[in-house]
Design brief:
The complex is a heterodimer of chains A (about 350) and B (about 800).
Chain A: H1 3-20, H2 24-35, H3 40-47, H4 56-93, H5 111-125, E1 129-130, E2 136-138, H6 139-142, E3 167-169, H7 174-183, E4 190-199, E5 211-221, H8 226-241, E6 247-254, E7 257-266, E8 283-292, H9 294-299, E9 308-315, H10 316-324, H11 331-334, H12 337-340
Parallel strand pairs in A: 1-4
Antiparallel strand pairs in A: 2-3, 4-5, 5-9, 6-7, 7-8, 8-9
Chain B: E1 2-4, H1 5-8, H2 18-28, E2 32-37, E3 44-55, E4 58-68, E5 71-77, E6 87-91, E7 96-97, E8 101-102, E9 106-108, E10 111-113, E11 116-117, E12 137-138, H3 148-151, E13 157-161, H4 173-184, E14 197-201, E15 205-208, E16 215-222, H5 231-240, H6 247-259, E17 263-267, E18 275-280, E19 286-288, E20 294-296, E21 302-306, E22 309-313, E23 317-318, E24 331-337, H7 340-350, H8 355-362, H9 369-383, E25 387-390, E26 393-396, E27 405-408, H10 409-416, H11 422-431, E28 435-439, E29 442-446, H12 457-468, H13 488-502, E30 506-507, E31 513-514, E32 542-543, H14 548-559, E33 566-576, E34 579-589, E35 591-593, E36 602-603, H15 606-619, E37 625-629, E38 636-646, E39 649-657, H16 659-664, E40 670-676, H17 677-683, E41 699-708, H18 713-723, E42 728-737, E43 746-755, H19 764-782, E44 785-787
Parallel strand pairs in B: 14-25, 15-18, 30-33
Antiparallel strand pairs in B: 1-13, 2-13, 3-4, 3-6, 4-5, 6-11, 6-12, 7-8, 9-10, 16-24, 16-25, 16-26, 17-24, 18-21, 19-20, 21-22, 22-23, 27-29, 28-29, 31-32, 33-34, 34-40, 35-36, 37-38, 38-39, 39-40, 41-43, 41-44, 42-43
Helix pairs in contact in B: 2-4, 5-6, 6-9, 7-8, 11-12, 18-19
Classes of the chains: A alpha+beta (about 350), B alpha+beta (about 800).
The complex binds zinc ion.
């Protein structure tokens, strides 16, 4: 047989083997088998000495070319196998992405905390500080210094849990305002927000709670007006109930303020046209406010000839109930996790 | 205060509808709680009963022939008082009565009925105000063409005014009328009453022996005839929510409603002496009130006496013995003023609140005392055939209001933030009947006697503000510039809430007042507790020492609703006298991380809760926290509870609830923790300087030590740290082994030691030396043997 034909056949056979190999170590074996020192190409080279001299260079070149070609084929096959392996891995690792996830627990702040922090942040932005105080208070700070002497008829408006004759559970966060004014020795402007727990001797039902949360605000300086009160409450109403809200003030009575007003916010449910939430009036009673009564300023060391200011108070549960259409105030204290988890 | 619009029209020309009036009144005077028609029914006619026959199938029913302006109708009626030749109110088919009750043609037990003969109760008047036992018979002259409601003065509307403590004037029609006139910019027309005195003199001698009755006026009338009141008085009382009784009682009530001055009528002939003395009661003095109840009095109560025998509890209730009866002929009319505080105390103590006492406790206009008396006598003359004896007998110690209130236009505008003119102010004052003089822009004001609560210039500013309208006040913001911020403690508390929620715990809020028996459930020190005097219920009586009993209840509540994984915390308090200790408390139960299909559930255990807390401590820069086993909490597992300390300060505790407690509350494995916020806040460190990161690699060595089971890991690690020098950076337990080949009382702790220095790489030799030192030390102290890993 023609020796050149032999080289051709050998290359063809080797390439077929390479192409049939699908594992990397088999490919390496094929490479060693054909191209190793004891392989068939080396064997062919040993025949060279039997050839006439003039044919030797051509033969040598042909064998080398064939070896190079085989090497290329092997490297090409190596890439093919690598790619196949990756494909196999991808296939093996394919999962059902629609199965449920690993659960990370999600905790939430209580809705009342969320509303309080929201209001705190709003007022911090307007230059207010946050003041807190004790819930077990003395009568003097809860009532007397707020223009509510013993036997004042308005004491009936807030039935009180007394602990002793002089200590009680505060009925509003106003004593914090008293404490702040007293601390200032009557000669510093005040801009504060006082959030906290308060108590009234009420039977618990859908709209009454013996414990609830309140936020009060107090501004005292030399020129704060009722117009400033109106502007401030407008900002709060819009922040809580939406940019379209309006407010209206109407006369009311609180011993600690004079003039005193009740503040209505235009209904966020119907936009003021009238619905069941606003009892067809278009307005919702939201908070009480007024100009600080001079007796209150005096009792806490501020000279009413020099200082004036406003105060307001709002029930946090009421805000939450209005905003989220919650019908039962007890829901805030039951802590059914299906309730709490709705407010992220 | 329920205000009849017809009554209001006696004083003011009200030319707007009730909705408009009520809206304006709410914006300028006081909230209108409700507006209603006195009778809310349609298609009513005057009917005349011409014939009555018993219903053939029902004994209690009558078949009536009733004539109206549209003919004669057959109507079935069950009322016992239906009779021939009566005028009655008929609701014709098509009529709608209160409660959306529609009248239709019907067959009642086989007999046709074309409408209904009505009682006032069926027309919506409350049972407490009228006789509801039968139909209403019209006694007034009328024709079949009249509207029955007009005939009965019941075609009225009512608005309910919410009366605040500063507006006692609104407890009278006159007071409401004055504000109405001012709001509508109309004239207020006062009424006047003339009394026709006879020659005979009022015989009553009056002595006031207490300053708490500053004024006492009487008139005497005689020959009174007790009968029903005229229709307009009855209907106006009904509109005001008072039940008509007879002409004498009704007229005193009528005068009170119109003027705000309560009156009382005594049967003069029941008195032992023609004399009245007002004094304070003697302690334990006994007195029988109108309602026939024997009352024990106290020194604080004001009594009206005659011949030293109490005849009335002043301002609160009359006596049974001097009550007006059908036989009464001579009457003393009392018009007086009593001290607000005494009235309040008496009515509160005896639980005797009445229309009269409500007015006395709010304050009475002294200028209406005589007016009311004359009005009453005049109406008695007219409607009870009374003859009024000559002269008013009185003692009046009230001095007229003379102190002026000064306020300047500038002060008004500076308070309201407005730019009102002098004219704006004078017009307002005029409308409200305030007397004043002006000096340039200063007003010196004497308020009218019906506005007793106007005492300061701020009160005047309120009058101006409300009358000129709060809607006319502009909007602005306070000019004072200030720094708004949270205190560092407030930021600390917010960080805690933020971190706990990030870890998957839900914040809850619970009541601070709880059952007394439960307050000590997680209190190891038997602390003193605070109770309220008059709790609303035993459930809410004592202030918490810890919110944990509440959190346990929250877990129970949710578990009962198949929510078994409950991870909650609360920022609550331990309420001590003069100190409210703020706490972070938590309760955790169930599976922390669950993906059921992978079955990799992690049921909560001590170390998970500890890990949650440690992440909090790390976040808050609380370092060197140590854990100390404790059995001090009676409701916690003694083997799975630890005090959490930093140095000598106890921050709180962490523990599993005791199996017995768990059983009582039907709970599974549940863990609790509690931390003192102030202690944490005071012990946290602040980062003041950045810590250079070492460029040289650290080297680790793992050792396993066999020790007695009772040896705490924390103790072993502590002695390891003590034994080595500063090249030992950390020592942590990474495995715990019990079992073969160890003895039962032994355990093996695998510990990773990490060595390193900031300025160079450690030599192997140095590390081996340190490990040897460590092994020596633990061998000495705990007889710890090295075990090959
Ligand atoms: Zn609405």
């Amino acid at each position: 047989m023609d020796i050149k034909q032999k080289v051709k056949d050998l290359l063809k056979e080797a390439k077929e083997q390479v192409a049939a190999t699908d594992l990397m170590h088999n490919l390496n074996q094929v490479k060693a088998d054909y191209l190793g020192k004891k392989g068939p190409f080396s064997g062919l080279m040993r025949h060279m000495k039997d050839l006439p001299n003039e044919e030797k260079p051509t033969f040598g070149k042909a064998v080398n070319t064939a070896k190079q070609e085989l090497k290329k084929a092997i490297e090409k096959q190596r890439e093919v196998i690598k790619e196949r392996q990756i494909q196999a891995k991808l296939e093996a690792e394919t999962i059902d992405v629609t199965l449920p996830s690993r659960q990370f627990r999600l905790g939430n702040k209580h809705l009342l905390t969320q509303i309080i922090e929201h209001i705190e942040d709003l007022f911090i932005g307007m230059g207010y500080e946050i003041k807190e105080g004790p819930e077990v208070e003395i009568d003097e700070y809860n009532f007397e210094k707020l223009n509510l002497p013993k036997n004042h008829p308005a004491r009936d408006m807030q039935d009180t849990f007394y602990i002793t004759e002089d200590t009680l559970l505060r009925t509003h966060t106003s004593p914090v305002q008293v404490r702040t004014m007293l601390n200032n020795n009557g000669n510093k402007p005040i801009k504060i927000i006082c959030p906290g727990i308060v108590y009234r001797r009420d039977d618990d039902d859908a709209t009454h709670s013996h414990q609830f949360m309140q936020i009060e605000g107090l501004v005292v300086d030399e020129k704060t007006t009722m117009a400033d009160l109106k502007g401030t409450l407008e900002i709060m109403a819009k922040e809580l109930f939406g940019e379209q809200r309006k407010i209206r003030l109407r006369p009311d009575y609180f011993p600690f303020t004079e003039p005193s007003v009740e503040v209505d916010v235009s209904c966020h449910n119907c936009g003021g046209d009238g619905c069941h939430i606003c009892k067809q009036t278009g307005w919702i009673e939201v908070l009480g406010a007024g100009m600080v009564n001079n007796n209150v300023l005096k009792a806490s060391g501020y000279d009413p000839e020099k200082y004036q200011g406003f105060a307001f108070g709002v029930g946090v549960e009421r805000l939450a109930m209005l905003k989220y259409k919650i019908n039962d105030i007890r829901d805030f204290y039951t802590n059914d996790q299906r309730f709490n988890n709705q407010f992220k | 205060m329920k205000v009849s619009i017809n009554w209001l029209k006696d004083f003011v020309d009200v030319d707007v509808d009730i909705e408009t009036l009520s809206n304006l009144f709410t914006l300028h005077s006081a909230e209108i709680e409700e507006t209603t028609k006195l009778i809310n029914a349609t298609n009513l006619k005057v009917g005349f009963v011409t014939d009555i026959k018993k219903h053939e199938n029902a004994d209690t029913l009558n078949v009536c022939q009733v004539k109206t302006n549209e003919g004669t109708h057959q109507i079935i009626c069950g009322a016992p008082n239906v009779q021939e030749n009566q005028h009655v109110i008929v609701a014709m088919p098509g009529a709608v009565l209160p409660g959306n009750f529609k009248i239709k043609k019907a067959k009642i037990r086989g007999v046709e009925s074309n409408g209904m003969i009505c009682s006032l109760n069926e027309l919506g008047v409350d049972k407490s105000l009228v006789d509801a036992s039968g139909i209403h018979v019209i006694k007034e002259a009328c024709t079949l063409y009249d509207n029955p409601l007009e005939v009965l003065n019941l075609d009225d509307e009512v608005m309910t005014v919410h009366v605040n403590p500063n507006r006692p004037d609104l407890l009278s029609i006159m007071g409401v009328a004055i504000d109405t006139a001012a709001i509508l910019d109309k004239e207020y027309h006062p009424k006047s009453y003339t009394v026709n005195e006879i020659k005979e003199e009022n015989p009553i001698d009056i002595t006031l022996n207490t300053p708490y009755c500053p004024s006492y006026y009487t008139r005497v009338v005689k020959d009174v005839v007790i009968r029903e009141s005229p229709r307009f008085i009855k209907s106006r009382l009904i509109a005001a929510g008072m039940r008509p009784i007879n002409n004498i009682v009704d007229i005193t009530n009528y005068v009170m409603l119109e003027t705000g001055q309560p009156l009382h009528a005594f049967d003069l002939d029941s008195l032992e002496k023609e004399e009245i003395t007002v004094r304070l009661a003697k302690d334990n003095e006994s007195f029988k009130t109108l309602d026939n109840k024997e009352r024990l009095l106290k020194e604080d109560d004001i009594v009206i006496t005659s011949n030293d025998i109490p005849i009335a509890l002043g301002g609160v209730m009359g006596g049974a013995d001097s009550e007006i009866t059908d036989q009464t002929s001579r009457i003393i009319i009392e018009s007086a003023i009593f001290d607000e505080v005494h009235i309040r105390n008496t009515q509160k103590r005896l639980d005797l609140r009445s229309e009269a006492s409500t007015r006395f406790e709010r304050g009475i206009d002294p200028n209406r005392t005589k007016l009311a008396l004359d009005m009453c006598a005049s109406l008695f003359e007219k409607y009870a055939d009374a003859k009024t004896l000559k002269n008013i007998k009185k003692v009046d110690n009230i001095k007229p209001q003379s102190t002026e209130i000064s306020v300047s236009l500038e002060k008004i505008n500076k308070t309201l933030g407005t730019s009102y003119t002098k004219k704006d102010i004078t017009q307002t004052l005029d409308k409200l009947f305030f007397n004043y003089t002006t000096n340039k822009t200063t007003f010196n004001i004497i308020p009218p006697s019906h506005r007793l609560q106007i005492e300061t210039y701020q009160d005047i500013i309120e009058e101006v503000g409300r009358m000129l309208g709060y809607k006319n006040i502009p909007s602005s913001l306070p000019e004072t510039v200030s720094v708004g911020r949270l205190s560092s403690y407030q930021i600390f508390k917010r960080n805690i809430k933020h971190h706990m929620t990030s870890l998957g715990l839900n914040e809850v809020k619970t009541y601070a007042l709880i059952k007394d028996e439960r307050v000590h459930e997680f209190d190891k020190d038997s602390q003193r507790t605070i109770q309220v005097n008059r709790p609303m219920s035993q459930e809410h009586k004592t202030l918490t020492l810890s919110p944990l009993p509440n959190l346990i209840d929250v877990v129970k509540y949710n578990k009962a609703r198949k929510l078994s994984d409950v991870f909650i915390f609360e920022l609550g308090k331990n309420y001590q006298k003069d100190n409210e200790i703020e706490l972070l408390s938590g309760t955790l139960t169930g599976t922390y991380d669950s993906v059921d299909w992978q079955s990799s559930n992690k049921t909560i255990d001590f170390y998970l809760v500890k890990g949650l807390l440690e992440s909090l401590f790390e976040k808050l820069n609380l370092n060197q926290i140590t854990y100390h086993p404790t059995n001090a909490y009676k409701n916690c597992h003694p083997g799975q509870t630890a005090l959490i300390k930093q140095g000598d300060d106890t921050l709180g505790f962490i523990g599993k609830i005791h199996p017995k407690y768990a059983q009582t509350h039907k709970l599974e494995d549940t863990f609790v923790f509690e931390l003192d916020l102030k202690e944490m806040y005071n012990n946290k460190t602040a980062i003041t300087q950045f810590n250079e990161i070492s460029k040289y690699p650290s080297i680790t060595r793992d050792i396993a030590l066999v020790v007695d089971d009772k040896v705490l890991a924390s103790e072993l690690l502590e002695s390891i740290k003590k034994a080595s020098n500063k090249t030992l950076k950390t020592a942590t337990v990474f495995d715990v082994y019990h079992g073969e080949p160890l003895a039962e009382t032994q355990k093996s702790l695998a510990i990773k030691l990490t060595f390193g220095l900031k300025d160079r790489t450690l030599e192997t030799q140095e590390i081996e030396e340190q490990v040897a030192l460590i092994l020596q030390a633990v061998k000495r102290k705990y007889d710890a043997e090295l075990r090959s890993i």
